Amino acid sequence: MSKILREEPRKINFTKNINPYATGSVIAEFGNTKVHITATVEESVPRWMKGNGSGWVTAEYNMLPSSTHSRMRRERSKIGGRTQEIQRLIGRSLRAVVDMNKLGERMVTLDCDVLVADGGTRTTSISGAYVAMKIAFDKLVEQGLLEESPIKDSLGAVSIGINADGNIIADLNYEEDSTCETDMNIVMTGSGKFVEIQGTAEGEAFSREQMNAILDCASKTLKIVFEEQNKVI
Question: Which terminus of the chain, N or C, has less C-beta within 10 A?
Fold first, then answer.
């Protein structure tokens, strides 16, 4: 049976309102991983959505050249497959907790720029993007542009891994992630519902029992994430 080596996340810090031009902004830190996130609200929607009265939430993700151990090339003319996949994950996750009809014909873009990458950049982006989005919506309510916040539930994400000894570790750093047999990214709402589960056995295949243990661990870990989010919003 798998043993849980760590179910607490790394040290979490959300520093809000770090960008004076964005409607909502935050720097999200999980351990040494650091992501700069802004929420920009536009009073329009993509052409294919015009006239239906509902809004849209989307995301962009980028890693700065010096965010990793060796310099990354900037994605200028074409973004890579990994970047596209992460952007879609962030966008899908955020849309799961937003009532688009209450948002009205507005588009919210969450820009997630990784300053330092030490594992869990996509999960840090999701947890931080929720904070930036919540700040933005609260500001629109204060300004009288929205009657009420369109957010239906809180949102957080965490990575969980199984190491070579079959033990479970929450919120993996780069070294832990690179040596794990199984790596999962789990997105959940504050009410305990799963938005997305991404899991891959890169070495030894994992059992149903281990899968259940991972989900239980994620639930416990994310309770702490939600608590830290609530402290700033």
Answer: N
